[in-house]
Design a protein that fits this description.
With about 250 residues, this protein is mainly α. It has 11 helices and no strands.
């Protein structure tokens, strides 16, 4: 066997052995992909047969844009790993299907703050507004910056259609035509298909903002409305109580 020192002092041998190690590692990861049907779980509601995971509504998508703009991903991951401690703290491990409409996905590995993959519905809208405005008023040990301008800033909807069309081009099934709308009805149900119609994007956004009243001010639609709507949907699309405990193991 080669001594460790002899490998490190021989650049040619080090390069060759490094390439061998990388090749073996690559093959171990790539080859299995040719023997499975897919890497994204098939998640349909057992009672309706419709897809559980849907694209974001216009309001939620704008909230996600703000989440990215403010750099929230730098301190919060959105990926729960399949370990017991993560399951106990955050809930069921993250599914690939839950991120299939995310461009880019927000998995991450940095957790200065807690993982947000299942934060939806965990806190009230009021809590989120207060937490974003003055984090230490609800979590004294928090080092998160204040974001008071979100509630005071009206949401920009001028390029809403363009943003949705751009996402459509990379595979998010927003609809522009009747054929695409009908396909979404079959896939997600009519109520969801309506929210994915680019032709009604602004009306859908306004309707959801007014119904949800996320920032507590129904008089206008703020960036806070959008961001809270996005946070409140995270991890809520799949109802894990409807599936057998070992159902998703087949996809791993």
């Amino acid at each position: 066997m080669f001594k460790h020192e002899s490998i490190e002092t021989n650049s040619g041998m080090l390069i060759v052995l490094t390439l061998v190690a990388i090749s073996i590692g690559g093959l171990v990861e790539i080859v299995p992909l040719h023997y499975i049907n897919g890497t994204v779980e098939d998640v349909k509601d057992p009672t309706t047969g419709l897809d559980s995971v849907r694209p974001y509504t216009p309001l939620e998508q704008r909230g996600r844009d703000i989440y990215l703009r403010e750099g929230c991903y730098l301190c919060h991951s959105q990926m729960i790993r399949p370990f017991r401690d993560e399951d106990l703290r955050y809930g069921h491990y993250s599914l690939a299907a839950e991120s299939k409409y995310d461009h880019p996905f927000q998995w991450g590995s940095k957790r200065t703050g807690p993982d947000l993959a299942r934060v939806g519905g965990k806190y009230s809208n009021e809590w989120h507004v207060q937490h974003l405005t003055a984090p230490r008023s609800v979590v004294p040990e928090s080092i998160m910056p204040n974001y008071p301008w979100l509630k005071a800033t009206d949401l920009d909807m001028s390029d809403l259609r363009d943003r949705m069309i751009a996402l459509k081009r990379v595979g998010v099934p927003y609809s522009l035509t009747t054929v695409e709308y009908d396909a979404n009805v079959k896939k997600f149900g009519e109520s969801v298909a309506k929210t994915l119609d680019i032709n009604r994007a602004e009306d859908n956004l306004m309707a959801q903002a007014q119904a949800g009243n996320y920032d507590g001010n129904p008089a206008n639609v703020s960036e806070m409305d959008a961001l809270v709507s996005y946070l409140q949907v995270l991890g809520t699309m799949v109802d894990f109580k409807k599936f057998d405990e070992d159902y998703f193991i087949q996809f791993r």
